[in-house]
Please model this.
Amino acid sequence: MSTQRRPFPFHEFEPKWQEHWVSRRAFRAANPGDVDFDHSKPKYYILDMFPYPSGDGLHVGHVEGYTATDILARFHRMRGFNVLHPMGWDAFGLPAEQYAIKTGRHPRETTTRNIANFRRQLQAVGFSYDWDREVSTTDPGYFKWTQWIFLQLYNSWFNPVTRKAEPIATYTGPDPDSVRLAYVAKMPVNWCPQLGTVLANEEIVDGKSEVGGFPVERRPLRQWMLRITAFADRLIEGLDGLDWPEGIKLLQRNWIGRSEGASVMFCEESGGAKIEVFTTRPDTLFGATYMILSPEHPLVGSITTEVQRADIEAYCTTVASKSDLDRTELNKEKSGVFTGGYAINPVNGERLPIWIADYVLMGYGTGAIMAVPAHDERDFEFAQKFGLPVREVVRPNEAVEGCFVGDGVAINSGFLDGLSTPDAKRTITTWLEEKGLGRGTVNFKLRDWLFSRQRYWGEPFPIIWEDGRHHALAEDELPVVQPDMDDFKPTGTPEPPLSKVSEWVRYSEKAERETNTMPQWAGSCWYYLRFCDPVNGNRFVGEEADRYWMGQTGQPGGVDLYIGGTEHAVLHLLYARFWHKVLYDLGRLTTPEPFQRLVNQGMILGPDGQKMSKSRGNVITPDAVIADYGADSLRLYEMFMGPLEQMKPWSMKGVEGVHRFLARVWRLAMEENQEGKWVVSPVLADVPMTSAQARVAHATIKKVTDDIRALAFNTAISQMMVFTNEFVNASPRPLDSLKILLPLLSPFAPHLSEELWQRLGFDGAASTQTWLTHDESLLIDNEVELAVQVNGKVRDRLVVARDASKEAIENAARLSAKVLEAIGSGTIVKVIVVPGKLVNVVVK
RNA sequence: GCCGGCGUGGCGAAAUGGCAGACGCAAGGGACUUAAAAUCCCUUUUCGCGAAAGCGGAGUGCGGGUUCGAGUCCCGCCGCCGGCACCA
Model:
């Protein structure tokens, strides 16, 4: 019995407190309007990226971010904030559907089971979520509002004059369907014949399906799209007001990929067709020596001469059959074919041969370029390969080798000669606009968001089709719930699984339901809003709840702190910002941005320093760590490993280390008696702390407080270790030491802190104490030790009074025997005194 | 190729431009014990001298620079990790 006993009985008190917190709803946050709502408290909304409840259960990586937010949530509660700290489930997704196909069991069944397991695991770590606010994206009461938001997008357009989303009724043009923020277009999608399903880009690795490694081909299908490109500029501008890592902001800016330039009209020589190109270098127009169209460009057919037609068609066929992988491999070598046609350069009337090449993408700009091989590396490579002329029109300011792509001075460019690149750009753009041959334009890499999936386990669209036209369902018809099915197998064609349920598809005599579903991103785009008011049946979020939790800080973003992994740096965080801005423009929300401050936790690697994976066999599960060492040890270890944002490897020895620390804290308060029972330690006494003890105690209050604010949890913990080392041998041991330590420790190790607080008979609970403030005067020692340096090398130490004058310190340093020895025959040039730190004697 | 991030003991790491290595792990030694576990104490960047207390030198990826003083700031390299990838 005694040999197996744990150093402290965490296995008894941890489940007890977890049960206590859940059953008492200990961390429930009151909403404005609730009877117990306290108007005097400031709000603090701290959010985790909610998990996909996979069958594998919680990962230690989840626990890392969730512990960080839990510490901050508990800290803010103790500092008198009304804290919103919710959790939910991003539960639509492919794995549940794949499992359903294999076993015939409904995805809802596996999803429900996985959610129950995740909830159990999260509660076993002792997180202080407000479980009354739990939401799941798969719950009809939730996705009713996901569908409702889709209808807001469907019923809006982006007004370029106001630069805002507006109700479609304010659009006065002929075809409202052409400007809706949600629209239908025929788009190539990734079709995987072996899996019998369409895949998202993220599910394709190196041109093959992530699951199974099967080939994927492009097929054009009717798809729902969201017009995120209309918000490109707003999405870039909005980043300025956010406290996000600069790297993430940059990633988003690059993803949106704004570039300024000009569109220029070229005229095809024989047929007179207009070919519009986009260029960021209109100043090099005189250097264009040929043109290239994308193989998919609509003018290819009419421009191609009969002599060239066979070659062109062969090339287009080859390109069309290439998967993305093959096309990427082709990048190493430029390819293309001459169409036989010519275009006229509008600035000098020169004839330019028109080629097609797959390095020109139909999806960017106009799908056609003017090639300036002297000043663009890709054009240069192409010109080299096919023997096309190269004409230099920009002189570099200093000599460069090879193709010059930088700024310089225009040459061989007629009226632009002598102008610097920026001036030449302005001049030529004005000239083009005056002649009606072009204009300044901006292009983005960002594409509209392909929003439909051919899946069962997703939100159905609230859309019906009649006579080939789409119509929105009325709000009171929401939610549109998927029908139950027995057979989840793919249809074998790109028809969505829902199309098999004919009685569901049939909406009326004439109308049929849309059978596509929304992507997994949909539910996660707005869940942070639903947390503010999770059971509201009348609105996606109540106005007052939105104003209170998302507003009132005077900053653009509503969520005060959002912690999660880098994998969502672009897509989720961009999509959510887009939806938020639309809802904001439509007057449904109070702030223009969802997340004010963002922090990315670093990845936790396996003990071997490799990414954790089942195949490597290096996965650590939270359940196993909790069983052996307890939840507090798991929490504390993950925070002690290193800086939150850094990647770091797991070490079970490290877990043991923090476990020993917690055992030492336990023994500060408790002692084993003759019968092997834990009793309050007899060395504890109501005596004042010595000045040395008080200094450590107050230094700990200060450092833990500062470090939590800075998210430097590892150093906060090491300071509490210093504190414990100071008191562990004290006898008598002042009771005040525990009155100070336990509340400081409680955000990190809430179970142990609460248990000891109760056993010591202190009032209330450790987790509801008011956060302590340190007494600066207790930190000050009357004497300080200074290092005495000669030319930067430490030669002696000096103990002086705290308030000694600079002169007194300098004189004492000059008298030091060791300093005099180090000076030798040199002369003192000057003496630098840094009070409280050191003295540096500079000698020549 | 382009854009980010990071390089400090045997390991995880710490250090407002001011005594490099706090705290933890591992290792070694000791106390307690019949023994082990647990616990407690001591040592532990490295090299040289010394029986020892100690004394001296070197040291934060490499090379320069700024400064009384650089892990920290600046310039140029090298290496590792992550993201994007023909975006005209």
